[in-house]
Amino acid sequence: MLETAIAGSLPKPAWLAEPEKLWAPWRLSGADLEQGKRDAALVWLKEQEDAGIDIVGDGEQFRTHFVHGFLERIAGIDWNLKTPMGIRNNRYTVEVPTVTEAVRRTGPVHGPEAAFVRGHTRHAVKWTLPGPMTICDTIADGHYGRRADMAMAFAEVLNEEARELQAAGVDVIQFDEPAFNVFMDEVAEWGVPALHKAIEGLTCKTAVHICYGYGIEANIRWKETLGGEWRQYEAIFPALNASRIDQVSLECARSHVPLELLGLLKDKQVMVGAVDVAGQDIESAEEVAGTIRAALKHVDADRLLPCSNCGMAPLPRSVAEGKLRALAAGAALVRDGL
Ligand code: MET
């Protein structure tokens, strides 16, 4: 009951990449880098287990960024052809690589890494992948013409990858779709169909993560424009509840999401964000427990998994460690009282 998990990313150790930065450049290369990523994943497996996190992961130590880290190993993308793009409906502009031909997977992306993680923990393992809509909002299209078509092409690539992750012993495969909170009308139209393509044939648990972003400046400013009640989930949860995805991961801690919206996910397992990632102060176990208890008014205890609001990649390492412990301790408090 109330098994804990995290959205995915954790900070890279300072010997592996520049700390407190998204898209942090690696500090190692070649074989040292490959070894360093594995060592970092081991550190975080141990930290998660010692903190009391039930469903663990690699902390996304094998990639620079949750979207481009996967795309780097996909063919059909020109990394030198940079196109400026107003990501998440112009929240911020970055130069992104461009899809110039049909995308395809030329070999395993994370399969061997997932097998490594599986071999080093007895806990359930979650692996995260970028979702098709969010990929399409983080890369320019110079080939497909319609975002929905490009999303379907990436969904096929993701499905091949997901089948390998499952074969490597991963228990939960999560697709990260923060773009669902921005392009709400397109979620039912092609976002969910693309996810269905991505999970085709899987028997492991599947999840989708939808948040209000990392604790970076651009997101904090955006959130300030959203008003007192954040009702984006209201527009997309009906389509997600009707979908074949097993779990929905969402933001609840210190946020303006009205918790009654969780009631729209009555047929799903719900990963409730009970630690925030926008600030550096660490929640007390009581505060985490309070968020979980408030969510329990709308989600049955046997469907609720306490989680982090989003990834912790840009946080200082000690803060992330503290938040892992707070999350597990808060969940334990609530469990004891059930
Ligand atoms: N799995 C990703 C992470 O935890 C999700 C990012 S959504 C902005 O970092």
UniProtKB/TrEMBL annotation:
Its EC number is 2.1.1.13. Its cofactor is Zn(2+). The keyword Transferase applies. Residues 3-327 form the Cobalamin-independent methionine synthase MetE C-terminal/archaeal domain. Keywords: Metal-binding, Methyltransferase, Transferase, Zinc. It comes from the Bacteria. Signal peptide: none annotated. One of its GO terms (biological process) is methylation. GO terms for molecular function: methionine synthase activity. Pfam families: Meth_synt_2. The keyword Cytoplasm does not apply. This is Methionine synthase. It comes from Marinibaculum pumilum. The lineage of its organism: Bacteria, Pseudomonadati, Pseudomonadota, Alphaproteobacteria, Rhodospirillales.
